[in-house]
Specification:
Oxidized Rhodanese, domain 1; 2 domains; 41% helix
Length: 191
Amino acid sequence: MISSMTPEKLNEETKSGRFLQMVDVRSATEFAAGHIPGAVNIPMDQLESRLGDISAGSPVVLICLAGQRAKICADILKPRFENLAVLEGGTRAWIERGLPVVAAVRTRWSLERQVRLGAGILVLAGCALALFVNTAWIYLAAFIGAGLAFAGLTDICPMGMLLGRMPWNAARRGIAAHPGAAVSACPAGRN
């Protein structure tokens, strides 16, 4: 059975000492930017291959940024796990209530979001330049489209690898545990 749990209830349950498996299904970058203390990161795209990391005998609370990805993951886990819950409003609701958050980095966008922004800007620039400067600029947009198609087919993203090496994506020393830590924005269509 899949139920939902409010941030207040989850906070009470964790303070009471009751063992709950809190599984955060966001990307590793989103998780590092801010997560609930005690949560384990199993990104949505790894969930089925990491079922062995989740104990079938204990209650499982699924967490994402706003609740949508957690609900999708709950449907995946439903046949194998009896006691499932989804955190209502996700990490965003947890933070809005001023509950504690563990953050290994300052606010950081996920690499996926950075790639989408960079690709979008390059496609728009290519199209605008093709319209107003020289039609050959359309090849920039075509090149970016081909790169995105390649990344989707192979799961290898050269732009993501390049962005991952940028200074703003470098790991920062120290781990902060504090209420109201910033959480990276959710990738479009996944919240």
